[in-house]
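User: Predict the complex with adenosine-5'-diphosphate-glucose.
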Amino acid sequence: MEVLFVVSEVEGLVKTGGLADVGRALPVALKNFGHDVRVILPYYKAIAEKFESHQISDTQVLYANDRHYHYNIRQMDLDGLCVYLIDFPPFFDRDGIYTDSYHAFPDNPERYAFFSMAALHASTCIGFKPQIVHCHDWHTALVPFFMRRDPTGFYAQSRSVLTVHNGAYQCQHPLHDIPFLHPYEEIAAQKDNMGAINFMKIGVMNADKINAVSPHYGYELKTPLGSHHMYHEYMTRQHDLTGILNGCDYSQWDPATDPELPENYHTDDMSGKVSCKQALQSAVGLPQNPDIPLFGMVCRLTEQKGFGYLLPILGHLMQHNIQLLIIGTGDPSICEELHHFAHQEPEKFVFREEFSNHMAHLLEAGSDYFLMPSLFEPCGLNQMYSLAYGTIPIVRAVGGLRDTVIDLEESPDQATGFVFHSADSSALLNCLRRAALFYYEYPQQFKAMQHRAMHTKFTWEDAARNYTGLYEDALRS
Ligand SMILES: Nc1ncnc2c1ncn2[C@@H]1O[C@H](COP(=O)(O)OP(=O)(O)O[C@H]2O[C@H](CO)[C@@H](O)[C@H](O)[C@H]2O)[C@@H](O)[C@H]1O
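Assistant: Here is the predicted structure with adenosine-5'-diphosphate-glucose placed in the model:
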């Protein structure tokens, strides 16, 4: 199949979170499955500064209201993957992808409405007629709407798939600021009483098929509590909504080959993991004690990741003989609390406010436990990386975390981690205490759990097979 993969981030080029990991690994897996996949994303400043690409057509123009958008199409090769870039400096030649590190760019809705329109337009200019146009999250959720109303007929036989990586981000914005949507009366009819429209709703109501990034998140989207206030839309589309579990990119996340680690390791010889722990403790200034359990966490600092109930128990946690390391960037108020706490407990707790791929890899390898107590988690990738690195995940039973981690009490012989249920501090604290006790009291069982974790596999090949099935369903619709 010919697939146009329209996405706002691609790991290796530009990344703010898990969307980028999927933006790289899934098209590669689909290509390996035999599909002709072309990825298209904005030509951000960060890409222009670091990577070679070349312009492949004359300057193109799009019109919306009285505005003209003159843009260029560029192309590059990313490890055998064909990548097109939409070059429009007024929107993309700036520091930051979505934010200036603190605040979202106010013109994000217009930027991504333009990108969605330009991605489809560019494909017609290039002459690539895809059977499937696969878009992701709110940034490209207008693509299915524009496809259905394409006046040229170029996409008449094409079908659209919208993947929901994070349904909480929907982009609600005044229609007035989004010129590309002005011509459509049906959109004007959807304005709420503040004059705003919702990109994600438009995507869900117009895509031929929709999928969540795990089966359980697919189920949650169809519940009032888990739908992020889009229960009506997800229920309306329930027969076209499914869940496909993300994979783990083992070419990037394998402790036996990971070049970011001071020493590699595998299930037959775990001594390298001890060196990684030592290197991690040394890198962040924690006492170099190999016997104390080290809990690690790396994530975007947002409420989604469970800080609402993690922050209140940090003090209680420090009464135990453990170490905790958190690496992340995001919400300034969470940063402030973490910095404050780190000053109080320098021997036990370190907070690094940074985005570092190297440190993320070292943390995955050097920690004993990986903490992921999310309020909601569409799939989650770090728990998969943790399993691969023999770093036992501690997760809440939501979304993809529930689909990928087996709790010790639930199934002692198959357990790969610790799972708690309620979104509250005491449930989390109990779970963390359970994990610390297990580490100290049952070292042999801890090792056995590490081995089981490292043998657990969630491959992109499986995901690509499932997406192929979804594409086939879309083409039949
Ligand atoms: N400070 C930092 N330094 C270095 N690396 C950092 C970092 N902060 C985060 N990362 C990296 O970003 C990625 C985070 O991926 P996740 O899937 O866990 O979360 P995210 O919420 O961004 O993704 C959303 O999309 C993905 C993809 O579908 C879903 O799995 C997920 O549930 C959904 O919320 C990992 O590769 C992680 O290592």
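The mean pLDDT is 96.
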